[in-house]
Amino acid sequence: MARRNNLAGWLLVSPVVLGLVVFTLYPFVASLALSFCEYDIFTPPRWIGLWNYETMLSRDPLFWKSLGNVLYYTILAVPLGILFGVGLALLLDARIRGLAVYRTIFFLPSIVPVVATSVLWIWLLNPQIGLVNTLLRLAGIEGPTWLASVRWSKESLVFMGVWGVGGSMLIYLAGLKDIPASLYEAALVDGANAWQRVRYVTLPMLTPVIFFNLVMGMIGSFQYFTQAYVMTQGGPLDSTRFYALHLFYEAFQYLKMGYASALAWVLFLMVVAVTALLFRSQHKWVHYGR
Amino acid sequence: MIDEEKPISRRRKQILWIVRGIFIAAAAAGALWLFVGYQPPRHKVWPGREKVVFWHMWTSNWAEVVQNIVDRFNESQDRYEVVPLTVTGGSLKTLIATSGGAPPDCMAQWESVIPAWAERGALVPLDTLMPPDEWHALRDRLYTAVRDIGMYKGHFYGLSTGMNIWAVYYRPDHFREAGLDPDKFPRTLEDLDAAADKLFQYDSAGRITRIGFSPRWLVQYVAVFGGSLYDPATDRLTFTNPRNVEALEWITARADKYGFERILQFESGLSTTMQASWPFISGAFSMVLDGQWRVEQLAKFAPELEYRVAPIPPPKGGKPLACWSNGNFMIIPSGARHKEGAWAFMRFWSGVDKPERAAEFYTWGGWLPITPEVAAAPIYQAYCNKYPQFRTFLEVMASPNVQVTPPVPVQAYMMNRVGWAEDAALRKTLSPRQALQQAARETEREIENDRVGKE
B418: nearest CA in chain A? Predict the structure, then answer.
């Protein structure tokens, strides 16, 4: 009976297991092997040892450029995302009229598909007829060319990212609801004012959620692709050529599948390393209320 | 301990029924679509013939033109049946089909795939499909650009079905308004600059409201200045050829005069460059560089618009009737099963065997032909009489000064870097010479990476 149950169980999960093996595990392992090969799809892969990794470090200036871009974006976008996410959650945790409406309004952008958001922002940031520059013009400021400007292209994408913090805001809101009221009562008894309650109760108790969003945001930033692909294609002057976009071009435009696999593995290792660092740092600042 | 099952409430039952209803309705709609609405792919009409699978990139009206040409071919002989299929994103799908051992027999692609795929042995050399004397005769008849794009390392891999040529579209009404004679289009680049200066317009805040002429796209002007990005004799890149540097210096000087940011700002506010909303129609540009396909579009979307077309005038020491050219090319993947059939179809369409017959196909698509014989055919001449502006493009097409993208295996990377160099010079990040030097260095390094990686 137990054996039959076992078999039935395996049969039921087999589509998922097969899918994982064929579409995730196999490509994962294959890409590691391909990263040591010259492979252009047309001809069979040919072993070239560490050539791809050497090329990356010493013969591909765009590797460093794209890495610099992604680090710049991560350093700017992730903290800003947390700042705005937590700030919004705190505001929307207040007991005011029409709270559900406000929450819906701020959450809505995060459920718009990325490509649609990108197209919308191309228009919002249009230097001539876009809403952003029109508002700036009303204030007497001639706005920059945003996505077409080397100086502002990455910042434009960061602004757009901040617009979509509704998803993380919702998680922060859930985190806020989880903070025991007794802690606030104790703080009140101790004479803490509103800022002190936020600083010494809310934020420490929210750190597990902030930590989660930090890790997820960092991983997402390292893989930043769609918005840049749709809005700027890496330009101007490679200022938005992010790591994943560079990888994509190497693979599907220049047919360097082996090199692209090597890039993917370096990205993977970087993400693992930064995630590990974050996990190691958490005992210093994340409070699990134990 | 097992929980006692709770009875399902009436409300839950209702919800369950609604969910079931939705599923049943969706399944019924799917089945209805399968049996009634679904159009199966076109099957063979002549079962006894060899099936030649042809992948192309055209949709809607263009796909109909392709279908008509295919029908003509299928009716013209009794050995092959070409089955066309629109495949968007064709190059990636062909890559996958080729690696899976099931490529189409022939396909239409942009010219940039030729060196990259030929280098990897993924294309059939077309010169091996015909006797040497026939190949030599064809090679001598082809327009220079058609031949140069199709060739890679001594073999001929692609045959064009339609070339693209660029020339200056201009508005006679703007010319008259600015005190210029539209019958005397500038004959030199210096005169073109002077005319452009008179045609620019601004609003009270100093913002551009009309562009006289704003040159960009270095490869076009490299040809006009008499420069070159590549030396076929030495197989070396020549990005820093003094004439190329002069071309980029001229482009940046023109942008500086009106302010690159200001031009970008104005252009960003214009509608897309597609068909009816082309800003030339609305008068945002007095002169603009564009391709021959606009002639038919203008006839369709702005039949009343008065406009003319002229070749890009050369600077002192430059080349007349010059531009950069590209086009759609028919290729045969090396794993194709019916190479002979594919080649027969390509000959039929492009006019290699009967130029007079193929001339009609070119008029259906508004395409530029591959040989002077096709262009001279009465039906093509009648087309040019109907659209007189088209003659300018035909005239440039026949010129030996038309240039094509250098046939290097890393062509896509190279063009990306050339575009980068132009952008860097326009934004003053580097001087034109430095920008071209850096683009050359990076492209040479990429060629070297590609070569050593293969060894």
Answer: A237
